[in-house]
Design brief:
CATH class of chain B: Alpha Beta
Largest interface: A-B, 28 and 31 residues
Structural class of chain A: alpha+beta
Number of helices of chain B: 7
Distance between the termini of chain A: 33 Å
CATH topology of chain B: Rossmann fold
Shape of chain B: globular
Distance between the termini of chain B: 18 Å
Order of helices and strands of chain B: EEEHEEHEHHHEHEHEE
Largest sheet of chain B: 6 strands, mixed
Number of domains of chain A: 2
Oligomer: heterodimer
CATH architecture of chain B: 3-Layer(aba) Sandwich
Structural class of chain B: alpha/beta
Order of helices and strands of chain A: HHEHHEEHHEHEHEEHEHEHEHHHHHH
Number of domains of chain B: 1
Strand content of chain B: 25-35%
Radius of gyration of chain A: 33 Å
Largest sheet of chain A: 6 strands, mixed, barrel
Number of strands of chain B: 10
Helix content of chain B: 25-40%
């Protein structure tokens, strides 16, 4: 009953000053709209840039590195315990990059409940032979299906089809940078040489473009079987196991446990790509700062209008108090006015924000390095809308708080006697 | 003996800005139920100040104030607001109607605030009060569509809506011409005599005061006669 009466009085006052309150609400609407659009757009761009790397990077990568043995033969003797052995000029041992027992590891990983998928890989450093010139490069032997499923490989193949890689023996998908250098068309044959001097002819079935030029100049893809043939290794020869997890944040912990369990090097995505996190968070911070600044400015607008309204309504406040409305009631009336402006303005802002970001999402955005992106990226994250809604209410509440307090402290005697 | 509606014991008040001036010194009197009392005096004698103290709106004074037998000193803002809402009806020199509401709603507001009756009932009562004052036909008009005398009658209807113990008036006829102020006076008289309504009116209009039951005359912050 009391709340109903107070909202009734508030709304009547709002209605009597419709133009001013509309201006105040439009201020809130504008700031929320911009807040939503800005954050959606910024987050969309962040995702796009991060995905350039993160989509193509396994959450945990298992591999072998050429390292000196940690335990030297003399340590195994164990005779002179309590003494130290000094071994100078240790050299890395002649070990293979192959992951030992790879099939068992893959099976174990596939049964791990944290793991979304596993894609084995065999990386081979090679030379592309172009006439008398040799260009350095790397062929990644991949499981085409797993790569498509986990790392959206197909998205980056700009010419040809990944299926051809699987179905054509001795085929290769060439990085577009390398292809341009060699003046190669899809369907051509190229010749490659390995470090050991093995030569092989490969048929080009497609080009791929990652968006990172340095990679496109060097890398190409073939099936694992083809790379094993290039290296003249058995079918179990695998140099990398790429693991994609359900929850990326678990990667560092899991990398550590895999490192112990499988006795291989394991690197997690956070360690490998720390700089991307930093870039994203700074960009997000800037957009929040701009958005909140807009809101605070809108808050000052509401503050002004309420202050003006209170000066105009001195008489009404005085008589309300004289006829039995307490300071608290008067406070509630003006807070209700402020919150109504905030709620209506904020709600419209959320709708317009959605509209504006959808509009931005329609603007064409073509760039050579991002073959899959045709329009500006937008992230429709519900959190932005929640934050926008909460902030619009908080700012309008504070904008209304001080004028309302002033109104509640008006002494009716001063007003009535002053007449 | 009649019930005492208001009892003031030793009320004193000083203004301190810019220099200390004593506006009320040791004022004591009481008003019984059903009385029609006027306070007269020259301007600046403290009669309005006394009225605002009696109305509980002004709380900075010394002395004791009993309203309906209850001590008002040291009550909180919220409690005093409730007392004003329930027990006191006000009529000021200026009508103080809310421009955003129509006449009926203006009269209803204190009743809605009190919240004892459902809104429908309050509306009915407000309509009754307007009828007593002969302005029921203006109920759905807005204050700016009414004449000064009509507005003042609406203000009286508003003062009556919660059936207060006492109606206080601060120069209620001060802004009106002779014809309208006679009409307002007749309304007060009718309320006092037919409805046994207690009234306390501050005025400087001696003709008005002469027709009330009791005249309290003030000078320099003191009551000099109470007849």
């Amino acid at each position: 009953m009391k709340i109903k009466l107070i909202t009734q009085i508030s709304f009547s006052m709002l209605y009597a000053r419709l133009k001013q309150t509309t201006v105040a609400a439009v201020g809130v609407t504008f700031s929320i709209t911009m807040f939503i659009a800005l954050l959606s757009f910024m987050a969309g761009l962040n995702d796009l840039l991060d995905n350039l790397i993160l989509n193509r990077t396994p959450h945990v990568r298992l591999y072998n590195e050429i390292l000196p043995s940690i335990i030297q033969p003399i340590d195994r003797m164990g005779v002179n315990s309590g003494t130290y052995n000094f071994v100078k000029h240790i050299k890395p041992k002649n070990d293979l990059l192959e992951i030992r027992n790879s099939e068992a590891i893959i099976t174990a990983l596939k049964n791990d409940p944290n793991v979304l998928g596993v894609a084995p890989k065999t990386a081979v450093p090679i030379f592309y032979n172009v006439g008398v010139i040799n260009l350095t490069g790397v062929i990644n032997g991949i499981d085409v299906d797993a790569e498509n499923r986990l790392f959206t490989f197909q998205d980056y193949v700009v010419e040809g089809n990944t299926i051809d890689l699987k179905n054509t023996p001795n085929s290769i998908i060439l990085g577009i940078g390398a292809a341009k250098k060699m003046l190669i068309q899809v369907g051509d044959n190229i010749q490659i040489t390995t470090n050991e001097g093995n030569r092989l002819q490969l048929k080009v079935v497609g080009f791929f473009q990652s968006g990172i030029e340095e990679i496109d100049k060097v890398q190409s893809y073939a099936t694992i079987a083809t790379t094993q043939k290039i290296l003249r290794k058995p079918a179990s020869y695998i140099t990398d196991i790429q693991v994609k997890l359900y929850d990326m944040t678990k990667a560092p912990a899991l990398a550590k446990s895999y490192n112990k369990l499988f006795e291989v090097q394991a690197i997690d995505i956070q360690t490998a790509n720390a700089q991307f996190e930093t870039g994203s968070s700074v960009r997000t911070l800037i957009s929040y700062a701009v958005g909140i600044t807009l809101l605070i400015v809108a808050g000052f607008g509401i503050y002004n209008i309420l202050n003006m309204m209170i000066y105009e309504k001195m008489d009404s406040i005085a008589i309300l108090k004289a006829t039995g409305f307490s300071g608290k009631d008067v406070n509630a009336i003006f807070i209700t006015i402020a919150l109504t402006i905030g709620l209506v303005g904020g709600a419209l802002g959320l709708i317009f924000g959605l509209g504006l970001s959808a509009l931005i999402g329609q603007i064409p955005f073509n760039t050579a390095s991002l073959p899959t992106v045709k329009t500006y990226p937008i992230n429709y994250n519900i959190n932005f809308y929640l934050i926008g809604a909460i902030f619009s209410i908080i700012t309008t509440y504070f904008a209304g708080y001080f004028p309302s307090r002033k109104a509640s402290r008006i002494d009716p005697v001063d007003i009535i006697r002053g007449k | 003996m009649e019930k005492k509606v208001i009892e003031a014991i030793g009320i004193s008040k000083s203004f301190h800005d810019p220099i200390t001036v004593k506006v009320l010194s040791d004022v004591s009197f009481s008003i019984n139920s059903g009385e029609f009392v006027s306070i007269v005096g020259k301007s600046g004698c403290g009669k309005s100040t006394l009225l605002y103290i009696l109305s509980t709106m002004d709380t900075s004074y010394e002395g004791q104030l009993f309203l309906d037998g209850i001590l008002m000193n040291k009550k909180k803002d919220k409690e005093l607001a409730k007392v004003r809402n329930e027990k006191i009806g006000f009529v000021f020199q200026f009508h103080y109607l809310l421009a955003e509401f129509n006449i009926l709603k203006n009269v209803m507001l204190p009743g809605l605030k009190l919240g004892i009756f459902p809104p429908k009932e309050i509306e009915h009562r407000a309509y009754e009060k307007l009828k007593i004052l002969g302005i029921e036909n203006e109920a759905i008009k807005f204050p700016n569509q009414l004449s000064g005398g009509q507005k003042q009658r609406v203000a009286i209807a508003r003062a009556l809506i919660n059936e207060p113990l006492i109606i206080m008036g601060d120069e209620p006829t001060g802004n009106l011409d002779k014809k309208n102020s006679d009409m307002v006076f007749n309304i007060f008289k009718e309320l006092a005599e037919e409805y046994r309504q207690t009234l306390l009116i501050v005025t400087h209009d001696m003709d008005f005061a002469a027709n009330t039951h009791r005249i309290i005359t003030m000078e320099d912050g003191k009551i000099i006669s109470n007849l």
